[in-house]
Amino acid sequence: MSDNGQAHTTLAAFTVDSGDAARRLLKAVQRIDAANDNVQIVDAAVVDRGRFGRISVHQTTDRGALKTGVGIGTLGVIAGALVAGPAGAVAMGAAGGILGGLRGGIHDTGIDDKFMRSVSKEIEKKKSALFVLYEGSWEHSIGLVEQAITDEHALLFNSTLPADKAAELQALVAPAVEALGGEEVVGAYELEVAEEPEAAAEEAAPVEEAAPVEEAAPVAAVAAADAKADDLTLLVGVGPKASAALAAAGVTRYAALAQLNEPQLRRALHDSNMTPPANVGTWPMQADLLAKGDWQGLMKYNNQAAASRPAREKAPAAAAAPAEPAEAAKPAEPVDDLTQLHGIGPRIESILNDGGITSYSQLQHANTGELRQIIATGGALPPASLDSWPTQATYAVKGDWSGLATYNRG
Pairing relation of β-strands 9-16 and 39-49? Predict the structure, then answer.
């Protein structure tokens, strides 16, 4: 117990050979927990690392009677931040940047560096992990815990926090849950970690030298002295095409992008036949924060920008249509409530809308690669349910809600 009578909180990570082993171990630990009044499991999450750097995070849905105010999604986000590594999940755009920034904040709350390094190193060996957040002590059940660890050939790493630091950790993670897509996402999501991010950045650097100096746009002059490319897709709203357009204009560094104004950015995008996105004016500030390594500041800035953005209109204005004969006009695409589908909350719906998907019909015909890119560009994590969205949408298009419910239960 802590000095003020509150139980300490411990974050334990058990690394095992497979996801099945992690789930068996979780059941064993839960049985021990049920018989021991001196300890209470607050939350649990399983992390699977597959081939080619793909990581899946699944927070347990059986949360039981919790004694604390730990929010849904907290442990899933913590696990993602730890396994993504110090640089974040570089293949996941701005969401990876948020996880990378959280890792530093988590360390500051008292989760020790050795714990984070050890867990990341084991998962890099293509192992899975069970994360358990608990209050109290296993002292009276230590023999049973050790036997469960032995049965699954697990390695145990843990880091204990006093009650005030545990509350600080919760306060740190809570804003990130919404930024990464909401509770519907962070309870079960996927991310990808590039195996050699530094080498990839070095190979991208020569792009800056491709544009002739005499034909360079004003934006290119700002970046002329830069020698190494940054990953501009970590900015919300910058996808691979926009990043390539900026590189063609000579902008490949956060510092260079931070010095530009909106007209210069629009010109660079137009020169590559791209329509500037609605948030293009936020890119310089985002880039400035990234140049400083201020991931927490970036997360707060993007949250504020999203909150201040006017709600999307449910139907395009009729006046926007050209004055052509009526038969030439295309019917407006309906705007459906995408949150009726499993895995889509308000934040994800907004990102899909910004990506041009506003109806069940559009979602039904979208491919999962396109959906992942839209979600990543919007700064969120791709939920584990993403692959099922087109199928779910086929039920929604028909109004077959009973069939949809049966599909999701299966």
Answer: unpaired
- Report yes or no: 120 and 404 within 8 Å, Cβ to Cβ: no
- Tokens 């204005």 label which residue? 317
Q: Are 377 and 93 in contact (CB under 8 A)?
A: yes
Sign of torsion, CA 175 180 185 187?
negative
**CB neighbours of residue 354 within 10 Å:** 19
Please answer whether residues 47 and 55 qualify as being in contact, where contact means their C-beta atoms are separated by less than 8 angstroms.
yes
Question: Rounded to whole angstroms, what are the CA distances from 120 to 149, 191, 384?
Answer: 19, 14, 21
Strand partners, 353: none
> What is the four-CA torsion angle of 122, 125, 126, 131, rounded to 10 degrees?
0
* Polymer length of the chain: 410
Q: Locate all alpha helices (DSSP H) within 110-223, ordered by sequence.
A: 113-124, 142-151, 163-179, 183-186, 197-204, 218-223
Q: Write the pLDDT tens digit of every residue in 214-234.
A: 444 444 444 444 457 888 877
Q: 299 is written with which tokens?
A: 């997360």
Q: Alpha carbon of 225 to those of 208, 253, 293: distances in Å?
A: 10, 10, 20
Instruction: Give 368-410 pLDDT, tens digit per residue.
Output: 888 988 888 787 888 888 999 999 999 999 999 989 989 988 7
